[in-house]
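Lab manual, section 2.4: Encoding a predicted structure.

Procedure: take the sequence of the chain (118 residues), apply the prediction step described in section 2.3, and record the output as structure tokens. A sample record is shown.
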Amino acid sequence: VHLVESGGGTVQPGGSLRLSCAASGFNFGAYTMSWVRRPPGKGLEAIAHINNGGESTQYSDSVKGRFTISRDNAKNTLYLQMNNLKPEDTAVYYCAAQTNGRGDYGYWGQGTQVTVSS
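Recorded output:
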């Protein structure tokens, strides 16, 4: 199983980034997928979820209205469009697959750093 994030970097406040997560080694289209972030010195925060078919999404209050999660099951790829970025969005961003009915994350990527700074 591999989940490989890309698209991170440094951006000024108010800017945008698009993260991608390429999946392989498992039936990507069968799983709810999430983006989870870890700000420096803090714990993990799940910020966006999308069901296996892509019809249903959920967001944390901290990113609602600014971030959009999407997926392309034909390409085995998960996306996170991040707009109007704020310094508090600085974190390592991970994609993760929910592999059981309890919402536990069984598959994780290695993470990509997003830094929002002027």
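Check your result against the sample. The radius of gyration is 13 Å.
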